[in-house]
Structures are given as structure tokens and as C-alpha cells.
């Protein structure tokens, strides 16, 4: 055996120095359950669901924190491990008010439910005292439903490690453990920037997207459409959630090359302008009375063409300056650039997404 190999479920495999057993097993197609793990965060080892059997140790070890070393003999699946994982899940599920939560609550909100179903852990034999207490917070973006919290601390860690905001923290111990802000205040009075990362990493839906949940009664199957956020020039990837012809929410793309699951407040929550009742549904042309009136597209385009042509004729092509909106589709922005450069003969064009 070379110094960079170990035995994983009966097979010798190579590992990279510093690689954890969880990372190694995942790379080799092993499905190890976890609730406190997020690949973007430092390993925590809190839920113990990722425990594996390691030859020479008395008890299973957390694979997310155990580094691979030469000569290890590791087993990721056995009856005893299944029993351990089922018991741990039964204990976790016994504290929660409910397991069936709406997927619109967040990207990872179904993880606990899926694991409980997978291991048949709906026995209720540990039902009794509970921890967690929902927080009455009037912010329009994040629902803090801590009756569903399992103290995995993913929300606290993503806020600190990914965002650097440190807006939320942990107080007390045992059944009195709570996720809180400074002085138990509201999120809007904390360092929270409402990026929504805490919502999207929560595996139970204890933190939920309020704006998406407001659309929960819209009928139809939820579809995901991958696109790029147009609010700035970073190019964050996101998945637009839709039912029928209505956008009902947004999930960050965890595999997005520019953002890796991160979004700002606009990319995460500012999607309702699409269906806003104040959006124009037809062109408006100013009449002789000085007021705007509905017009046909031909009439509006003819008016715009005459106006632009007259300005260029009197003041030259560089007298025209155009600004495109970040809320328009990428194709529309491309056409705008083409129109200004090739049609008007100037390079005086900008886009609010550049800021």
C-alpha cells in the first residue's frame, strides 16, 4: 500500500493530503447522510449522521472532520451505522413541530424530511421536551420559525464564514439553545444584509423565504430555470422558480462559478417587479395635452425614430446617450448595444448592471 492510499468499503483508494473521509467517500460515489454539513463551510461534526466505522477505534467517527491518513480501513455502510443514523434522526425529528414543509421555504429545506423518510425514522419514540422558539420578526424577507430548528448552526456559520456579517449567533445550551441576534433584537437592527444565505442552507425550513412562501398557494408544478442575475456585473447564477407563467421565488445556484450559492438582497428577493401591477403593458406617447397616452408599437417606434433622428441631425451623433436597464433580458441589452453602436454610430451607452 502506498502512503496515499486507504481501504474504503473493501477497496483501496487514493486520497489527497488533507482530504476528509467524507470528501473522499463522496468522490467515490458513497452516499453518507449529514445535516450540519455544507461544502462551502468549515466541517463542524455536530449532527454525527456522517459517522463511519474506522478500524481500531471503539466508536464510529465523524467523517466530515476526520482527515484521511495512510492505512486507514473505513466502512461507510453497515447495519450498526444504519441503526445509529436512524436513532439520531428520530431524536432530531422528535423536537420538530413538523417535517412536511413547503419546498419554497428554501433550497435545502427538504433535507431533514428526505433523511427521515430514507431511514424510516418517523417512530415518535423520543417525543417530549423540545427546544427552539419562533421569533416574531417583521422583516419582509426572512421568516424565523425556530420551532423547526435543529441547532445545526449552518445559518450562523454561513453568515460568519461566507458573508462575514456575524449577524446571528448562538445563545444558551441544551434545550435552551437558540439562534439569536445581538440583544435578541430584530434582523433589521442587526448586521444582517438580507443576502438569504442562512435561508438557503437551512436543512429544515426553520429559516424561510417569506416572499416565496407568499406564492405557495399558486397552483402548478414548481419548475427551475437557470439564468444569470442582471442586477450588477458580477454574473451570479441563480435558478428562477416558476409555476405556470408566474415567478414564485429564486434559489441561488450552488454550482454558480461566480457566486457558489451566494446572492445579495436584490438577487435573492427582488423578483416581484416582474409581475408588478404598475408595469407598462403598452407603449405610452405624450400627446399635445402634455399627458402620456397608450399607443400602438408602430406609433411609438415611429415617434422615437423621428425624435432621435432630429436630435442627431441638429446636434450630432454624440449628443445621444443611452442607458439600458439591468432588469431587461440579456438579449434586449445586446440589441440595445447593437442599436446604439451600429444604428446611431456612437459608443455612448451604459447599463446600471455595470455599477
How do the strands and helices of this protein lay out in sequence?
Elements: E1 5-8, E2 11-14, H1 21-27, E3 51-54, E4 61-62, E5 73-75, H2 79-95, H3 111-118, E6 142-144, H4 154-163, E7 169-171, E8 178-180, H5 197-201, E9 207-209, H6 210-213, E10 223-228, E11 237-243, E12 246-252, H7 265-269, E13 284-286, E14 292-294, H8 297-315, E15 322-324, H9 330-344, E16 349-351
Parallel strand pairs: 1-5, 15-16
Antiparallel strand pairs: 1-2, 3-4, 3-5, 6-9, 7-8, 10-11, 11-12, 13-14
List the keywords.
single chain; 355 residues; Ubiquitin-like (UB roll); 9 helices; alpha+beta; N-terminal domain of TfIIb; Alpha-Beta Plaits
Summarize it.
This protein is of the alpha+beta class.
Helical content stands at 25-40%
Strand content: 15-25%
Overall mean pLDDT stands at: 92
Outline: elongated
Give start-end ranges of low-pLDDT stretches.
none
CATH class of the largest domain: Alpha Beta
CATH topology type of the largest domain: Alpha-Beta Plaits
Describe the structure in your own words.
With 355 residues, the protein is α+β, with helices and mostly antiparallel strands. A 5-stranded mixed sheet has the order 2-1-5-3-4, with helices on one face. The protein has 4 domains: 5-77, Ubiquitin-like (UB roll); 98-214, Alpha-Beta Plaits, CATH 3.30.70; 219-279, ADC-like domains (N-terminal domain of TfIIb, Single Sheet), CATH 2.20.25; 295-354, no CATH class. 25% of the residues lie in helices and 17% in strands.
Amino acid at each position: 500500500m502506498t502512503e496515499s492510499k486507504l481501504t474504503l468499503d473493501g477497496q483501496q483508494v487514493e486520497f489527497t493530503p488533507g482530504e476528509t473521509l467524507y470528501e473522499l467517500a463522496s468522490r467515490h460515489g458513497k452516499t453518507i447522510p449529514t445535516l450540519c454539513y455544507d461544502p462551502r463551510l468549515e466541517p463542524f461534526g455536530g449532527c454525527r449522521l456522517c459517522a463511519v466505522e474506522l478500524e481500531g477505534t471503539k466508536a464510529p467517527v465523524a467523517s466530515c472532520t476526520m482527515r484521511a491518513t495512510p492505512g486507514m480501513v473505513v466502512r461507510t455502510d453497515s447495519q450498526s451505522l444504519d441503526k445509529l443514523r436512524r436513532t439520531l434522526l428520530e431524536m432530531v425529528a422528535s423536537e420538530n413541530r413538523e417535517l412536511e414543509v413547503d419546498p419554497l421555504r428554501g433550497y435545502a429545506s427538504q433535507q431533514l424530511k428526505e433523511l427521515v423518510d430514507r431511514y424510516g425514522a418517523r417512530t415518535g419514540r423520543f417525543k417530549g421536551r423540545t427546544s427552539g422558539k419562533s421569533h416574531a420578526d417583521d422583516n419582509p424577507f426572512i421568516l424565523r420559525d425556530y420551532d423547526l430548528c435543529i441547532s445545526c448552526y449552518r445559518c450562523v456559520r454561513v453568515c460568519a464564514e461566507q458573508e462575514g456579517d456575524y449577524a446571528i449567533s448562538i445563545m444558551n445550551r441544551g434545550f435552551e439553545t437558540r439562534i439569536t441576534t445581538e440583544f435578541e433584537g430584530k434582523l433589521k437592527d442587526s448586521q444582517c444584509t438580507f443576502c438569504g444565505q442562512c435561508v438557503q442552507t437551512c436543512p429544515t425550513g426553520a429559516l424561510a423565504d417569506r416572499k416565496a412562501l407568499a406564492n405557495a398557494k399558486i397552483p402548478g408544478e414548481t419548475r427551475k430555470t437557470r439564468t444569470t442575475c442582471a442586477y450588477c456585473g458580477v454574473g451570479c447564477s441563480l435558478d428562477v422558480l416558476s409555476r405556470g407563467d408566474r415567478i414564485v421565488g429564486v434559489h441561488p445556484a450552488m454550482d454558480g462559478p461566480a457566486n457558489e450559492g451566494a446572492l445579495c438582497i436584490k438577487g435573492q428577493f427582488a423578483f416581484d417587479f416582474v409581475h408588478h401591477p404598475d408595469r407598462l403593458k403598452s407603449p405610452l406617447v405624450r400627446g399635445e395635452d402634455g399627458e402620456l397616452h397608450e399607443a400602438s408599437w408602430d406609433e411609438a417606434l415611429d415617434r422615437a425614430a423621428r425624435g432621435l433622428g432630429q436630435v442627431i441631425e441638429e446636434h450630432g451623433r454624440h449628443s445621444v446617450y443611452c442607458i439600458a436597464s439591468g432588469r431587461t433580458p440579456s438579449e434586449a441589452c445586446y440589441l440595445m448595444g447593437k442599436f446604439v453602436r451600429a444604428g446611431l454610430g456612437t459608443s455612448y451607452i451604459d447599463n446600471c448592471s455595470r455599477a
